[in-house]
Amino acid sequence: MNFNFNKLHAFTKHVFITCGMPEAEAKLASDVLLAADLRGIDSHGVARLSGYVRLHKAKRANMNPIVKVLHETPSTATIDADEGLGLTVAPKAMQIAIEKAKQVGTGWVAIQNSNHFGIAAFHAMMALEHDMIGIAMTNASPLVAPTNSKERMLGTNPMCYVFPAGKHQPVVVDLATSTAANGKLEISQRANKLVPKGWIIDKDGNDTTDPNALKNGGVLQPLGSGETQAGHKGFGLSAVVDIFSAVLSGANYGPWVPPFVSFLSPLPDLPGKGIGHFVGAMRIDAFRPANEFKQHMDNWIDRFKSATPINIDIPVIIPGEPEFANHKERMANGIPLNNMVVEDLKKLAQELHIKWIDEMTN
Amino acid sequence: MNFNFNKLHAFTKHVFITCGMPEAEAKLASDVLLAADLRGIDSHGVARLSGYVRLHKAKRANMNPIVKVLHETPSTATIDADEGLGLTVAPKAMQIAIEKAKQVGTGWVAIQNSNHFGIAAFHAMMALEHDMIGIAMTNASPLVAPTNSKERMLGTNPMCYVFPAGKHQPVVVDLATSTAANGKLEISQRANKLVPKGWIIDKDGNDTTDPNALKNGGVLQPLGSGETQAGHKGFGLSAVVDIFSAVLSGANYGPWVPPFVSFLSPLPDLPGKGIGHFVGAMRIDAFRPANEFKQHMDNWIDRFKSATPINIDIPVIIPGEPEFANHKERMANGIPLNNMVVEDLKKLAQELHIKWIDEMTN
């Protein structure tokens, strides 16, 4: 089923407002969630809306947080998100980073006491209109095991780097530091298909191609999978995200990151507050004139797109390119939602006594 | 054969001095090269010494460069390395980053017109004694193909992140963004062994386990290897390193990065100058008190080391842990060099009319 962007956005905003979020924040949170759906990152869009609501009902998310700056220097800040949703707090943090970059060249903000922030790319891409490089990362509920272990110790911990270009779309590198994210497993589960070796190990630590192995106590593998494929590098990258997001900010790290699902409780004796994010903005003209940089980015993109293909019909894809194409197509033709998500949203509408998506007007 | 650290260091320094490098620079360049040998990254240590000398003889490396700051803001700088060796220029750039971090919280330096900088970890680790996080990356001669391509478009482009700890050794994440670096292929070539699938594709774009396929026109795969193992993420990370190191600094990027080996000439119509690096330093106490951070790093390390292992005899290894162990062992017992490297250094000693390693006294 396909849904019009404006109607789906209005519905999402109403859900957040009904949960006590001020209108401007509800609009922002909806912008972030819908950005995922538009870009084709379906796992991080409205498919999670009821999850945020349940976190709110479980009193684990504050819909009207008062964000505090705990510490700052000319190029840095640490903020306490007051148990808000990362959806609204991360853009505020990014705004602080951008202001600092305007003043001293770069700005870096570590965030503690937050909740899931949606797609990293939304926050990082806020830098683009200022001719800045944007960076965003977050830790997340533990599902990934470090190399040699079968214990859930790390989230899929994404890192995102965004670079403006000139005539071309920006380069947007946005990746989970696991080999596969949970969304891909769910697709295989629904289709009743095996997954490639290297995505998951089962609860006993054995390689498996069963897409249900994660649900049954298994773990995701870090990017690179096993040792011969350099899985220890994926573990290292995931560690970088965890340390920047949480050890630097004062949030929870490793296995202590509170679960996104409201039916699981956080562990006792937490070492920090909530989950953590880390964002940054770097003014291009703090290094070289922005127009020069953008011309060279165009040249970089043109050269990589013309790299000799293995299969003449499959060209090199620039990071971010498929997502820009999805965005354009879905703005024009609507956002496809699968049946399970639609049913979930219908239940939510009934529960909160709000109109269904089709009846939304603004 | 094992060589005493001090004697090997003195030999290396003499080689650089004989090539026209001032003594202080020659000591620094030797510190960087030998740091690789001590840490067990044998491919980046004195095994490359004759390569640097050949670059100098081919007039592609300046042994006495005058480094210029092209542009700066309170938290950033871009420098022209004047065709110097990255071995000496990158530490100078890192020093600038550290000074800026002292002033405004973080410091970031992009370097153009440089040559190979040795191991990234040396430069990033300079931040540690200042209670800072250190970051270093560089692009390199093209050997890696982007996803869907069989053309050499990227180097093994390493990224390094270093975090200080308290009672424990720092966490040092230092990784090539390819699945395997060239050094690992050379080990398999010498042992006449096949390499795992996913490391290389041959010149026609087919998967291969032949360790000689790279020499015969093949390419290395990015971290993650093929598409089902998320090789596009490795391509994305490699792109991040290339853009920070070269598009931001004004160096050459992608296939235009000049080859390290002196018998290959740079391409015509280069878009930038030399190869590029990017370094950064972030003061911990620009975010939270350094002692708090270090206590939590110790807790992070303790928890990850105690993660449930798959095999009870193989614990989780913290990034950087094996290299600290190598350093200690090799300082005590000497640095092992393989026969080919020893022969190469002997030829170099004869060519430059300097004494052999065993006869060095300081």
Topology:
Two copies of one chain form a homodimer.
Chain A lengths: L1 E2 L1 H14 L4 H17 L9 H9 L10 E6 L2 E5 L5 H19 L1 E9 L5 H6 L6 E7 L19 E6 L7 E6 L5 H10 L8 E2 L5 E2 L10 E2 L10 H17 L27 E9 L6 H16 L15 H13 L1 E2 L2 H14 L10
Structure, described:
With 362 residues, chain A is of the alpha+beta class. Chain A has one domain: Malate/L-lactate/L-sulpholactate dehydrogenase, NADPH binding domain (Ribosomal Protein S8, Chain: A, domain 1), CATH 3.30.1370. Chain A is 37% helix and 16% strand. Chain A contains 10 helices and 12 strands. In chain A, the strands form 3 sheets. A 7-stranded mixed sheet of chain A has the order 2-3-4-11-5-6-7. A 3-stranded antiparallel sheet of chain A has the order 9-8-10, with no helix packed on it. A two-stranded antiparallel ribbon of chain A has the order 1-12. In chain A, helix 1 packs across helix 2 and helix 2 (23-39) packs across helix 9 (321-333). Chain A starts with a strand and ends in a 10-residue tail after the last helix.
TL;DR?
The structure is a homodimer of 362-residue chains. Chain A has helices spanning 5-18, 23-39, 49-57, 86-104, 120-125, 182-191, 231-247, 290-305, 321-333, 339-352; strands spanning 2-3, 68-73, 76-80, 106-114, 132-138, 158-163, 171-176, 200-201, 207-208, 219-220, 275-283, 335-336. The first copy, chain A, is an alpha+beta fold and 362 residues long.
